[in-house]
Amino acid sequence: MNQYLNQVRAIIWKDFVTELKTRELFSSMFIFALLVIVIFIFSINLSIVKASEVGPGVLWVAFLFAGTIGLNRSFMLEKENGCLEGLLLAPVDRTALYFGKLISNFVFLLIMEAFILPIFMIFFNVDLLPHLLPLIYVIFLGTLGFCAIGTLLSSLSANLKTRDIMLPILLYPLIIPIIIGSVRMTGQILAGEPLSNMTNWISLILCFDVIYIAVSIMMIDFILEE
Amino acid sequence: MNEQIYPDSPCPIIQVRDLRKDFGYLQALSGVSFDLNKGEFLTIFGPNGAGKTTLIKVLTGLMRPTSGSAMISGFDVLEGNAKLRNQIGVISHSTCLYPDLTALENLLFYAKLYGLDSPEERANESIRAVGLQLRRHDLVRTYSRGMQQKMAIARATLHEPSVLFLDEPFTGLDLSAANALKEQLNDLHTNQRTLIMTTHDMSCGLEICDRVAIQNKGKFLFLESIEDIDSENFETFYIETLEK
User: Is A76 an interface residue toward B (CB < 8 Å)?
Assistant: First the structure.
């Protein structure tokens, strides 16, 4: 077990050291999310619609698109110089590899989201500060589900020639429940409702998080095999 | 056929029996069998598409065979367990090194994956062994092809595997880098490592091996000890064998 955790830690360490040196992943995700918000802010007339009603959708679309870029890049890095082969040749359980990549993707995405939230606040003129804790909770749950299935699918699409197209095609239908739940909850939170009123949505997202992680654990061996 | 050539191999470290691998209608491996003893060096020659890389991928557990069996150090390749992966190292034309990490960081990462004791010490030792200690803090991206190949050897031998697979290791190397690699392979050979190498470079391949195989269309057409081969006329023999 100790060795397993050390291997997961090593994969996370490697991803963080690489990202600290290149800042490729963060900058591309952040700029993309920013662009999405800017495009929406110019296409929506906020004097007609309430920002708290359209804002959650825009926020999650930005997270979703930017996150897809991050997921695509995540396993692409492993394909460079045949590094994935090096990982598969090491005595590493495939699930350790999955969890290492999942945690890295999850943390990178959370960092990007932390930078995007204040920008969203300014552009949409929404005060998030009174709702920050429940909002963080929802973002945490939604991002976890997105990364859980996204990491598995990015490992699958990394071996395909059409990987850039395949990931969103495979990923988006599967994360619809998580995105719907997250958008609804974010809207309710911005409207001032407490989390206790959203137990159904929380349960739904939690269920999908658990299902996606469980499915990934079962599938990762087959997916990484050539 | 090969079992008849080497009927009484004393406890071979590699045992391959009737290995087959199909990709749809294409037979990449069609019944490869051979034994290899500890410390032996087998070079496999063959044209492009002969199935050499597929054979290495199957033997290293990266690819599942359609049928047949392969045992390395007593471990079944099909089971692909961690103990087997601790016993093998692979050097191919891809270096398996992260270009945005330094040489030391790369080896440190692999040392942690292999669960080695004192990983930093081991990583430094391996870098010293390939003569790159002065550039250990440089990004691998800045290395020449020859230096990257040296690092690939350091990575593949970091955990001191008993069996080493080399898939076209001379690809893209200039003469001096190829000679340096040959020396390193000789050192590994004298250290009782079992080596299997695929290459197109006949002079390099023949110079350092104990046994030679010719593979074509997924089959071993020839497998002999180096003493039984006329090295000077091997190229002609190779072409004739392929044409048969």
Answer: no
ipTM of the complex: 0.89
Please state the rounded mean pLDDT for residues A169-197: 93
State the nearest Cα–Cα gap between B98 and chain A, in angstroms: 7
Interface test with A, best of B112, B137, B155 (most A CBs within 10 A): B112
Nearest to B130 by CA among B171, B90, B187: B187
Minimum distance, in Å, between the CA of residue B197 and any CA atom of chain A: 17
How many CA atoms does the CB half-sphere of A41 hold within 13 Å?
16
CA of A153, closest CA in chain B: separation in Å?
A: 20
The string of pLDDT tens digits covering residues A19-74 is: 999 988 999 999 999 999 999 998 888 778 888 888 999 999 999 999 999 998 88
CATH number at residue B203: 3.40.50.300
A22, containing H or E segment: helix A2-22
- State the residue range of the domain holding B176: 2-243
Contacting residues for A109 by C-beta, under 8 A, at least 6 apart: A29, A63, A66, A67, A70, A143, A146, A147
| Total domain count, chain B | 1
Residue B101 CA to its chain's centroid (Å): 25
Residues A188-192, mean pLDDT to the nearest whole number: 90
From the list A18, A91, A93, the residue facing B101 with the nearest CB is A18
Closest-CA residue to A11 (of A128, A94, A67, A68) = A94
Which residues from A are below 8 Å from B96, CB to CB? 81-83, 85-86, 89
The per-residue pLDDT for range B178-230, each reduced to its tens digit, is 888 888 888 888 888 899 999 988 888 888 888 999 999 999 888 888 888 88
